[in-house]
Amino acid sequence: MSDSGGVGDGTRAVRAGLPAPVQYEPALPGPVFAAHYHLSGEPTGPYTYGRDTNPTWTHLEAAISELESPGEPAETVTFASGMAAVSAVLLSQVRAGDAVVLPDDGYQALPLVREQLAAYGVEVRTAPTAGDAQLSVLEGAGLLWIETPSNPGLDVCDVRRLAAAAHAGGALVAVDNTLATPLGQRPLELGADFAVASGTKGLTGHGDILLGYVTCRDAELAARVRKWRKVVGAIPGPMEAWLAHRSLATLQLRADRQSANALALAEALAGRPEVSGLRHPGRPGDPSHATAAAQMRRFGCVVSFVLPDRDRAERFLAALRLVDDATSFGGVRSTAERRGRWGGDAVPEGFIRFSAGVEDTGDLVADVLRALDEAAHR
After folding, report:
1. Distances in Å between the alpha carbon of 101 and those of 86, 90, 261?
2. Which of 255, 247, 259, 248 minimizes the C-alpha distance to 361?
């Protein structure tokens, strides 16, 4: 799948952020473990102190910028986790007296952010993702936060429409791109000022590191975010940054298989009488499909659905053989969980968030259908 950036997604993912070749040096240099660097005279950089800069971050940030914004120059700031990246945007861009619009059906840690913003004197307004409902509370706001597809409900909103309305009113726009990844959608091309994500999930795909990032095309906005990282010290470790960059090479392969598996699973679940509330934006019958198809290039690995009650959901999860009962999503191994166990999402007790991995499609679908059968007869 190629685009205005000149090459296909797979080619870009494999080559992104690599330094110029040096004879007898590795294509991707190893992680740089350094708290300080040799530094005489004035501290003009590029590498001065380990909380400010690190060569391993530099390569990773360049790579993510290429993926999120292949057509125009952009700057990426990496963080120790997705929530560090989320907090950096919100807390570096707003001040007491400002109004911020958040989704009320987004990631379950967002209510914690709401509490902190309110404690700082920021007005927080919320509305659902579906139907572009955030438009109704946008007037006078300084920042609009969009999460599309939403987690875990998988609703989708029209980023172009919301961004245009926000900018007309003088607001900045941030889009949580965690579920889609840059290969699924590019918020900056859709009009957003910030593309924000947890790299813990699909971007790196192996469930072995925590990472977050913020990408924007405006250098001044990026500088504010970078300053916030320095102030709070929410920096990624060099090993995590190197592992993340290493993992990008397989992003297109993983994203394609996971998206195909998720769609096949959703189609199979559609025929099950015990399943209700089935959602996957790639399925033509999904309420969000038309909007998603207009702005997404891949529809992601997550499928959500509801089983009749908590006990049925727990029996289903226990019966799965190829799927781990675990939180998070986007990994090469399929995971599923009864989302209500955390208590932070407004979902039924039997709500399942399923993340399709890269297993053979037939094996994965067969395992899920068998587990549903077993759960129904106990």
Report:
1. 14, 11, 34
2. 259
Cβ proximity of 319 and 371 under 8 Å? yes
End-to-end CA distance of the chain: 46
Residue 177's beta-bridge partner residues? none
Cβ pair 144, 162 in contact under 8 A: yes
| C-alpha span between 114 and 96 (Å, rounded) | 13
Name which of 130, 170, 102 is nearest 288 in CA terms.
130
Using the structure block, give the residue that is written with the tokens 């840059």.
182
Neighbouring-strand partners of residue 49: 36
Bond into 281 cis (ω within 30) = no
196: left (phi over 0), alpha (psi -120 to 50) or beta: beta
Q: 213 near 199, Cβ under 8 Å? A: yes
Q: What is the pLDDT of residues 263-305, one digit of tens each?
A: 999 999 999 999 999 999 999 999 999 999 999 999 999 999 9
Kindly write down the DSSP assignment for every residue of 96-129, as one continuous string. TT-EEEEETTS-TTHHHHHHHHHHTT-EEEEE-S
Which three-class secondary structure state does DSSP give residue 275? Answer: coil
pTM, whole model, 2 decimals? Answer: 0.96
Q: How far is CA 6 from CA 2, 11, 17, 66, 113, in A?
A: 7, 10, 16, 12, 39
pLDDT tens for each residue of 40-75: 999 888 999 999 999 999 999 999 999 999 999 999
Give 174-177's long-range contacts (Cβ < 8 A, gap of 24+): 174/89, 174/90, 174/143, 174/144, 174/145, 174/146, 175/146, 175/147, 175/148, 176/86, 176/106, 176/107, 176/145, 176/146, 176/147, 176/148, 177/68
Question: Do residues 222 and 188 make contact, with C-beta atoms less than 8 angstroms apart?
Answer: no
- How do beta strands 172-176 and 194-198 pair? parallel
Residue 123 dihedral angles phi and psi, to the nearest 5°: -80, 125
Helices (H) and strands (E) in the chain, counts: 11, 12
DSSP assignments along 73-87, one per residue? --EEEEESSHHHHHH
Distance CA 26, CA 21 (A): 8
Q: What one-character DSSP code corresponds to residue 2?
A: B
